[in-house]
């Protein structure tokens, strides 16, 4: 189920304006191909967060076809984006889309597992990131967080997408066919974990499929 009233969601979606015509076309193409890209209200909030926070370095786990990373690179010209995609075919499509948008010099796409690539970046002495967006396999969020936190600093914002999982995180009664038990348990544990950490402040908000916005205060 939607986590907000459908009429409210529809009203908010009607207010949505794509950042550029090309991004509007990329969104349409991704949606037609059922690629799970960020929802419109999630995009709108994330882009305003970027306008306010002006992150020089953005890390994304879960590139898909490069839609959100392209939005991040365009909305703030000063941002360098690093994004990680596990699926090889999707990774190749992202590289192509990013090149078509003329963003190859602003976005680095890595092929591999989010946690493993972040550990490698850390071991190679990567600079920390100012904004981290976790948007990949839901059952691995804690692992992604534990790696990504090594590349965070005071005031880094970590946004985790889909934390309410169509309300299933709130109650398993919304898992009508009982197919998501493991994902539900792991997401509940993840939300509790980040909520109880003493080095960050987290807000869980019913935007899109549920966002956790965490501000690091080490
Ligand atoms: N952020 C993208 C956007 O809004 O345009 C959407 C990302 S999509 C929800 C999640 C992506 O994460 C999928 O393309 C999937 O292949 C990828 N993924 C799944 N497991 C992963 C992992 N362990 N490491 C990196 N990427 C992974």
Explain this structure to me?
The chain has 218 residues and is of the alpha/beta class. It has a single domain, classed as Rossmann fold (3-Layer(aba) Sandwich), CATH 3.40.50. It is built from eight helices and seven strands; from the N terminus they run αααβαβαβαβαβαββ. The protein has a seven-stranded mixed sheet, sandwiched between helices. It is globular, with a radius of gyration of 17 Å. The protein starts with 5 loop residues before the first helix and ends with a strand. The model has no long low-confidence stretch (mean pLDDT 97). The structure holds S-adenosylmethionine (SAM). S-adenosylmethionine binds next to α4 and β2.
**How many strand elements?**
7
Spatial order of the strands in the main sheet?
Answer: 3-2-1-4-5-7-6
CATH architectural arrangement: 3-Layer(aba) Sandwich
Low-confidence stretches: none
Overall average residue pLDDT: 97
Backbone shape = globular
* Number of structurally distinct domains: 1
Q: Please tell me how large the radius of gyration is.
A: 17 Å
> Number of helical segments?
8
Structural class: alpha/beta
List ligands, each type once: S-adenosylmethionine
How far apart are the first and last residues' alpha carbons, in Å?
37 Å
> How is the biggest beta sheet arranged?
7 strands, mixed
* Elements, N to C (H/E): HHHEHEHEHEHEHEE
CATH class division: Alpha Beta
What proportion of the residues is helical, as a percent range?
A: 40-55%
Q: CATH homologous superfamily name?
A: Vaccinia Virus protein VP39
How much strand?
15-25%
